Amino acid sequence: MEPIVWEWVNFLVRWLHVITAIAWIGSSFYFIHLDLSLRRRDGLPPGVAGEAWQVHGGGFYNMMKYTVAPPELPEKLTWFKWEAYATWLSGFALLSVLYYHGAALYMIDPAVLDIPWWGAVLLSLGALGLGWHGYDRLCKSPLGKDDVKLAAAGFVFLVLVAWGLSHLFSGRAAMLHVGALIGTMMSANVFRIIIPNQTKAVAAMKAGQVPDPALGKQAKQRSLHNNYLTLPVVFLMISNHYPLAFGTRYSWVIVAVVLVVGAVIRHFFNSRHAGKPTPWWTWAVATAGVAVIVGLSAAGTRTESAAAPARVELAQVEFAQVEEVVLSRCSMCHAAQPVWEGIGAPPRGVTLDSAEAISRHAPQIRVWAALSDAMPPGNVTGITPEERRLLAAWTDQLPR
Ligand code: HEC
């Protein structure tokens, strides 16, 4: 019964997380577009920096932006914060349900660092807390006065985190945690900087004072970071379904490239929304970046790099050898009736308990267990690099 309950908790929390993230990213994309499309004209009310006309849902909207604050506060003011908070809370719930509860399978890779489940949970919490703190310090340091220098420092910081995490966790958890840290930074930007600053501005207005423009400037900087991090964070969140991204030797370098690819694509849209000359070069950079990622993902597993770099040529692998590896390393979970504790049904519907089933799943076996070390999760059944190479050689021979 228990695995069935966990499976559904996982599914429902994920559903919630995707919905809240859509709400957050949707409103964020909307406001970025609105902000960049504002235009000045004569005759705008005092304090208005620009306006935009939009048509949607059968009506016309005339949007105006007061940069510091309107002369008088309206009675009803809509705040945008729960999308961000709910995304973080549901994301943390999902992290707990999937990774903390399933630490042995999803977080710990004994070949990387052999730690108990609570050690993995502490490392995860520490990475999120310290990571946010480090980023916040960077923004508040003298570097924070220059957006470009800060972006460069932030990039180096995130790449170092990705590299560090790849020495603590399984490939899958390492990549997901870079995403979780970026998500935490983005939500904390809303929770700790943007909303408090806006609250202070509103309080100043109510007291009949002009709000400090520095508050708005700081909020805008964090908002800019959130804008450029949106595409990379989504890549990192869905990466755990793609073993070539997370389970290969240079996964942490892939993170670095994704940060660039996501940011330049975002830049393309930002420039267009702002009516600036279209930066077509961004697509050249993005395409080159993706090509680099694809190339890096073919470099093999992390264990392979440590154990034996040379690829063994297995001219003719006997199917019986393959069958033995799969039956002894995979079928305890991937069977109609799994015998591994906590696995209630064959994961993702993949059964690997007969010669026929193994042959049918050859392409998936290649991606999940030969080209990457995604399976077995946390290498709980102790597959060896030689066995992975055997699987690689077998799937190499198969007709495509
Ligand atoms: C301890 C149990 C366990 C063992 C052992 C195991 N797997 Fe898995 N496998 C899983 C789980 C759990 C998932 C689902 C992962 C997820 O949620 O992303 C999975 C997913 C997969 C998938 C993904 C299907 C898809 O397209 O999403 C493939 C392929 C796979 N395993 C192959 C293997 C191979 C090959 C082996 C042996 C080398 C193996 N597994 C060993 C538990 C196991």
Automatic annotation (TrEMBL):
Residues 4-294 form the Urate oxidase N-terminal domain. It comes from the Bacteria. Keywords: Membrane, Plasmid, Transmembrane, Transmembrane helix. The keyword Transmembrane applies. One of its GO terms (molecular function) is heme binding. The chain crosses the membrane at residues 12-32, 85-103, 115-135, 147-169, 175-195, 250-269, 281-300. It holds the Pfam family Urate_ox_N. This is Urate oxidase N-terminal domain-containing protein. It comes from Azospirillum baldaniorum.
